[in-house]
Amino acid sequence: MKTSKVIALLSQDKKHVEVEVKGWVRTFRANRFIALNDGSTINNIQCVVDFENTAEETLTRITTGAAVHIKGLLVESQGRGQTVEIQASEISILGDSDPEEYPIQPKKHSMEFLRENAHLRVRTNTFSAVMRLRSALSFAVHQYFQNNGFYYVNTPIITGSDAEGAGEMFRVTSLDLKNPPKDDNGDIDHSQDFFGKETNLTVSGQLEAENYAMALGNVYTFGPTFRAENSNTSRHLSEFWMIEPEMAFYELDDNMDLAESFIKYVVKYALDNCKDDLEFLNQRLLDEEKGKPQAERSDMSLIEKLHFVTDNNFKRVTYTEAIEILRNCKPNKKKKFNYLIDEWGADLQSEHERFLVEKHFKCPVILFDYPANIKAFYMRLNEDGKTVRAMDILFPGIGEIVGGSQREERLDVLKSKMAELDIDEKELWWYLDLRRFGTAVHSGFGLGFERLVMFATGMSNIRDVIPFPRTPQNAEF
Ligand code: 4AD
Ligand code: MG
Hints:
This protein has 477 residues and is α+β, with helices and mostly antiparallel strands. It is built from 14 helices and 16 strands. It folds into 3 domains: 6-102, CATH 2.40.50.140; 123-168 and 203-464, BirA Bifunctional Protein, domain 2 (2-Layer Sandwich); 170-199, no CATH class. The protein has helices spanning 6-10, 56-61, 111-116, 125-147, 206-216, 252-273, 275-290, 302-311, 319-327, 330-333, 350-361, 411-420, 429-436, 449-457, and strands at residues 17-29, 33-37, 45-49, 67-76, 84-95, 151-152, 158-159, 171-172, 199-201, 218-226, 239-248, 315-318, 365-371, 387-395, 399-406, 442-448. Strand 4 and strand 5 form a beta hairpin. Helix 4 (125-147) crosses helix 6, helix 4 crosses helix 7 and helix 6 (252-273) crosses helix 8 (302-311). It is globular, with a radius of gyration of 27 Å.
């Protein structure tokens, strides 16, 4: 392969050399200037066409969206806006693009329009920047854990258990839906299904990760998870990627320390390694904010927000303290919240989480020690008998980014909790076995990867940080 990537050419010291590039035409101006992008960087390289010596037929085929192969001399640029350019000597059209029909015109498109064209939207500056950042962040996730003695575990995507106990699962079956086998009670007979039992797409790899932590010590998963909740919000996907570390011998404080250090590491990685894309996204957000009323504008730019996270401690607050703050806050007293907080035990909605983070503490917050009855069955019961060792990390503009806990390692306590919630011991015999054979204190958390990408890119809708979003009524592409 003789072709170079645009990112390499733009920073190449050696000038007046023959180079070759392949990429897609972003714009073609004055029958002379091609802005070429090959995805390696947000920046285009300018290719100057010698139109007098180029066939008319070729010139008409250099259109926005076309794939081209260009050979020429790399020189210092005469024009403004770029340091180098290519004086093209040979241009071949690899793939034509009908300028009348190509949806991604060189102008501003609405996010809605781009979602409808998700197969092509990555050819815009915004989406290519977001997707390069997404890739860098996922590399940083692995790097953090691999550098810190964690093993990567691939937990199953098809499972028979409901880890979160919320019942919001997609069924996996190979039964004939028109004519499923029935048992004597007239219910669908899953013993005749593919796996001989009811199965679904996993909502979390945690329970299986716990098994591995209790042998390998520190492990993490990073894979797709599925939730059939019918929430059409800017922060929920039906298919999203979750990172779930699980650590033997960690108490809740150790868990919080790890989560905070992990998030700071990956955000710093983005700041250090994605400068061009972040600068573009920073400017994009500034432009977007200009259109908003003063009161709604953020007092920090995107890059400032990222530095704020890496440079400041997250505020750690108990649920009980948070409820006191919320009970007495202005929006609660003036009945501005959709859900008013009047007593201890209330589940927090995103409006409350965002009030705490954005208005009250003005920094990332770790809330811990939640009431047992609003959290999952596996969380460790505190001595007070009513709270559990849960922690949620709340981020500005995002709300909950992490959910985690110390796990209930005591067999008798776990069994009575499961009985209380009507969870069948037979379904989770393998999970209970961990508490039978060498049980130990352990903890873990789950970070929603797309929520992290939203934070790092400043995108305001989760549908715009995953290549092909899956949401209720939407599985195109
Ligand atoms: O709080 P959740 O439900 O926790 C768990 O699944 C635990 N098993 C994690 C663990 O302890 N190992 O989900 C964890 C995170 C949330 O904080 C949120 O960031 C993200 O996953 N998340 C979603 N992201 C996008 N779309 C959805 N529908 C999400 N639901 C949860
Ligand atoms: Mg949660």
